[in-house]
Design goal:
The chain contains 3 helices and 4 strands, in the order ββαββαα. By secondary structure, the protein is α+β, with helices and mostly antiparallel strands. It has one domain. It has a 4-stranded antiparallel sheet with strand order 1-2-4-3, with helices on one face.
Length: 117
Protein backbone atom coordinates (compact mmCIF):
# COMPACT_ATOMS: atom_id res chain seq x y z
CA UNK A 1 0.00 0.00 0.00
CA UNK A 2 1.45 3.32 -0.98
CA UNK A 3 1.35 5.91 1.76
CA UNK A 4 -0.34 8.39 -0.56
CA UNK A 5 -3.52 6.29 -0.58
CA UNK A 6 -5.37 5.85 2.71
CA UNK A 7 -7.73 3.17 1.41
CA UNK A 8 -8.18 0.46 4.03
CA UNK A 9 -7.96 -3.05 2.56
CA UNK A 10 -8.84 -6.17 4.55
CA UNK A 11 -8.16 -9.66 3.25
CA UNK A 12 -7.41 -13.16 4.52
CA UNK A 13 -3.87 -14.42 4.92
CA UNK A 14 -3.52 -18.04 6.10
CA UNK A 15 -7.20 -18.03 7.13
CA UNK A 16 -6.83 -14.94 9.33
CA UNK A 17 -8.42 -11.60 8.44
CA UNK A 18 -5.69 -8.98 8.10
CA UNK A 19 -5.23 -5.37 7.15
CA UNK A 20 -3.11 -5.36 4.00
CA UNK A 21 -0.06 -3.15 4.48
CA UNK A 22 1.63 -3.71 1.11
CA UNK A 23 1.25 -5.89 -1.96
CA UNK A 24 3.88 -6.78 -4.53
CA UNK A 25 6.69 -6.53 -1.96
CA UNK A 26 10.12 -8.07 -2.45
CA UNK A 27 11.68 -10.34 0.15
CA UNK A 28 13.90 -7.49 1.41
CA UNK A 29 10.87 -5.20 1.77
CA UNK A 30 8.97 -7.93 3.62
CA UNK A 31 11.87 -8.30 6.07
CA UNK A 32 11.99 -4.51 6.64
CA UNK A 33 8.24 -4.20 7.20
CA UNK A 34 8.08 -7.32 9.38
CA UNK A 35 10.85 -6.03 11.65
CA UNK A 36 9.33 -2.56 11.88
CA UNK A 37 5.75 -3.69 12.53
CA UNK A 38 6.77 -6.47 14.93
CA UNK A 39 8.81 -3.94 16.90
CA UNK A 40 5.61 -1.87 17.17
CA UNK A 41 3.77 -4.86 18.71
CA UNK A 42 1.84 -6.02 15.66
CA UNK A 43 1.41 -9.56 14.43
CA UNK A 44 2.63 -9.67 10.82
CA UNK A 45 1.41 -12.14 8.20
CA UNK A 46 2.98 -12.73 4.79
CA UNK A 47 1.55 -14.35 1.68
CA UNK A 48 3.48 -15.39 -1.41
CA UNK A 49 1.70 -13.82 -4.41
CA UNK A 50 3.83 -15.06 -7.29
CA UNK A 51 6.61 -17.63 -7.41
CA UNK A 52 10.04 -16.77 -8.77
CA UNK A 53 9.94 -17.09 -12.54
CA UNK A 54 12.55 -16.42 -15.23
CA UNK A 55 14.61 -13.89 -13.32
CA UNK A 56 11.66 -12.13 -11.69
CA UNK A 57 11.71 -11.98 -7.91
CA UNK A 58 8.86 -13.56 -5.95
CA UNK A 59 6.26 -11.04 -4.77
CA UNK A 60 4.62 -11.02 -1.35
CA UNK A 61 1.63 -9.47 0.39
CA UNK A 62 2.26 -8.14 3.90
CA UNK A 63 -0.56 -7.74 6.40
CA UNK A 64 -1.16 -7.26 10.11
CA UNK A 65 -3.85 -8.89 12.22
CA UNK A 66 -4.94 -5.53 13.68
CA UNK A 67 -7.97 -4.73 11.51
CA UNK A 68 -8.04 -1.08 12.64
CA UNK A 69 -4.44 -0.44 11.52
CA UNK A 70 -3.89 1.93 8.60
CA UNK A 71 -0.24 2.60 7.67
CA UNK A 72 -0.96 6.10 6.33
CA UNK A 73 -2.60 7.24 9.55
CA UNK A 74 0.00 5.43 11.67
CA UNK A 75 2.88 7.28 9.97
CA UNK A 76 1.39 10.77 9.89
CA UNK A 77 -0.09 10.51 13.42
CA UNK A 78 3.33 9.32 14.66
CA UNK A 79 2.09 6.02 16.04
CA UNK A 80 5.07 3.97 14.80
CA UNK A 81 8.60 4.13 16.17
CA UNK A 82 11.94 2.88 14.89
CA UNK A 83 14.28 0.74 16.98
CA UNK A 84 16.36 3.88 17.55
CA UNK A 85 13.36 5.52 19.24
CA UNK A 86 12.45 8.11 16.61
CA UNK A 87 9.11 8.29 14.86
CA UNK A 88 8.70 6.60 11.49
CA UNK A 89 8.69 9.25 8.77
CA UNK A 90 7.37 8.80 5.23
CA UNK A 91 10.97 8.61 3.96
CA UNK A 92 11.86 5.90 6.49
CA UNK A 93 8.73 3.90 5.57
CA UNK A 94 9.67 4.07 1.88
CA UNK A 95 13.27 3.12 2.80
CA UNK A 96 14.62 6.30 1.19
CA UNK A 97 16.65 7.26 4.27
CA UNK A 98 17.54 5.97 7.72
CA UNK A 99 17.90 9.25 9.58
CA UNK A 100 15.13 11.17 7.81
CA UNK A 101 14.10 14.75 8.45
CA UNK A 102 10.78 14.36 10.29
CA UNK A 103 9.47 17.59 8.73
CA UNK A 104 8.15 16.01 5.55
CA UNK A 105 6.37 19.23 4.62
CA UNK A 106 9.55 21.38 4.47
CA UNK A 107 10.41 22.52 0.97
CA UNK A 108 13.99 21.57 0.12
CA UNK A 109 16.41 24.01 -1.52
CA UNK A 110 16.31 23.54 -5.27
CA UNK A 111 13.18 21.40 -5.11
CA UNK A 112 10.85 24.16 -6.22
CA UNK A 113 9.67 23.84 -9.79
CA UNK A 114 8.32 26.71 -11.80
CA UNK A 115 6.02 26.74 -14.79
CA UNK A 116 8.89 27.74 -17.05
CA UNK A 117 11.04 24.84 -15.84
Amino acid sequence: MAINNAKHIVSEIDGIRCTIVETGATLERVAFLSDLLSFNNMEVKELLEAEETAGAEPKYTVGVTDLAFNPVFAIYEKLLKTKEGSFVSPGYWKQECIDCDPRYWVRRKGARKTIDG
